[in-house]
UniProtKB/TrEMBL annotation:
Keywords for this protein: Signal
SUPFAM superfamilies recorded: beta-lactamase/transpeptidase-like
Source taxonomy: Bacteria, Pseudomonadati, Bacteroidota, Cytophagia, Cytophagales
GO molecular function terms noted in the UniProt entry: beta-lactamase activity
Source organism of this protein record: Hymenobacter taeanensis
Protein name, as recorded: Beta-lactamase class A catalytic domain-containing protein
Keyword Repeat among record annotations: no
Signal peptide region: 1-26
Domain of life from the UniProt record: Bacteria
Any matching Pfam family: Beta-lactamase2
An annotated GO BP: beta-lactam antibiotic catabolic process
Domain Beta-lactamase class A catalytic: 75-368
InterPro entries, A to Z: Beta-lactam/transpept-like (IPR012338), Beta-lactam_cat (IPR045155)
């Protein structure tokens, strides 16, 4: 952890491209397009990029003589209005907004921290209660523990609890406040959440003690009665058919009531966490240094390095939820490599939003990608080419960009 901290502490007062949600457009002589054309393993997907809904955003990081990073972004088919289902990739902005809310509350509630124990109750159909969390060192739930589980192994229940804590209205207000205009959060994950249940948030109490005797903050049940934010996107109906339970319907699946995002929005959040000084003051995340250190730690930690929660290496290998550069069969990360990322996988979509670094090789870059692998055009049939097409493609894409970065000798800016 000390080396990790020193790496980010060297950044200082950053300059370079303005860090905006609408990241830099592709530049002349785009190396990403050249790399995609030249690699035979990537070619089958690249040739069918439209069918695979392929989008890639690659950001080079060049440090000047003072160690300050400068950014230059390249893209392939980055189309914020072309829909992809974000799945778990939207957990990262949710994590930020949950920490921002707790940080704001703690300003007037002494003793309130991310580790403070939670009790969650239920007040609407389909809601569930939480009194204990056996994965934590204290046996109680907390914001910090939900964040650990969400970042380490992409736990869906952990995301759902953050959705309930912040609430749908504040979540979407926060996204707009940060300029993430292509991102909308409007349901929990893996519980069939939809209106009206998605509008209702559970009552939550946060305590000063693990015996749950001294409440610090009480949040009553709430309901969002407004209009869901709209995002102008095309082709929100995907596929030729889909299953609804055991029934096959010969029509596309409508995603208009589901979560949405874009690659520039996702990469902006990651950059804002890793390089906060590069964000204009008016757009910076409302987090303190402890919050950003926490997020960085668990974005890059491999599951078996965690003690609470504890994960079996057999079920959660080092490359679990690391699609770019390391995806595929269970195994270790490449030697010397750290990957800070958040993935998504559902409905045939694979997404990875990553910062990849190897200090010994002087390599660091941001790479975000989405690929759709559903050759039969049927959704909800669990017949997607994740293992045969999607993961091999993302693994190889990470390798190709990593090797290019390893050989790239950037001119240091003055």
């Amino acid at each position: 952890m000390e080396v990790f901290s020193q790496f980010f502490c060297r950044i200082g007062c950053l300059s370079g491209l303005a860090l905006l949600p609408a990241l830099a457009q592709a530049q002349p002589g785009n190396p990403l397009r050249r790399l995609l054309r030249q690699d035979a393993a990537l070619a089958p997907v690249v040739r069918q990029a439209k069918a695979h809904r392929l989008q890639i955003l690659y950001t080079q990081i060049t440090r000047d003589a003072q160690g300050q990073p400068h950014f230059r972004s390249y893209q392939f088919r980055v189309r914020p209005r072309e829909y992809f289902y974000p799945a778990s990739s939207i957990k990262l902005p949710t994590a930020v907004l949950a920490l921002e809310k707790l940080r704001a509350l703690s300003a007037s509630i002494p003793g309130l921290t991310p580790e403070s124990p939670w009790r969650i109750d239920s007040a609407f159909a389909g809601q569930t209660r939480v009194l204990h969390d056996t994965s934590s060192a204290t046996g109680r739930a907390s914001l910090a523990q939900y964040l650990r589980k969400m970042l380490l192994v992409s736990d869906n229940d952990a995301y759902n609890r953050l959705y309930e804590f912040v609430g749908p209205a504040a979540l979407n207000e926060g996204l707009q406040r940060h300029g993430l205009h292509h991102t909308v959060l409007r349901h929990r994950l893996s519980v069939g959440d939809q209106d009206p249940g998605a509008r209702h948030a559970n009552p939550i109490t946060i305590y000063a003690d693990t015996a749950l005797q001294r409440p610090l903050y009480g949040q009553p049940a709430a309901v969002f009665a407004g209009e869901w934010p709209g995002v102008r996107q095309r082709r929100l109906r995907i596929g030729q058919a889909h299953f609804q339970g055991n029934q096959r319907l010969e029509e596309p699946l409508d995603f208009s009531t589901k979560n949405t995002t874009s690659l520039p929005d996702l990469q902006w959040v990651l950059r804002a966490i890793l390089f906060p000084e590069a964000v204009p003051a008016s757009q910076q995340l409302a987090l303190d240094s402890a919050d950003t250190r926490f997020l960085r730690r668990y974005l890059s930690m491999v599951p078996q390095a965690s003690q609470h929660p504890r994960y079996s290496p057999a079920a959660y290998p080092d490359n679990y939820a690391k699609f770019l550069l390391a995806g595929g069969a269970a195994g270790p990360l490449p030697a010397g490599v750290q990957i800070f990322n958040k993935i998504g996988q559902a409905y045939g979509f694979l997404i990875d939003n990553a910062y990849i670094r190897n200090p010994e090789q002087n390599v660091e870059f941001l790479l975000s990608a989405v690929v759709y692998v559903n050759s039969d055009g049927v959704l909800n049939d669990d017949k997607y080419e994740y293992d045969t097409v999607g993961l091999p493609f993302l693994h190889r894409l990470g390798e190709v960009v990593y090797e290019y970065e390893r050989k790239r000798k950037p001119q240091k800016r003055r």
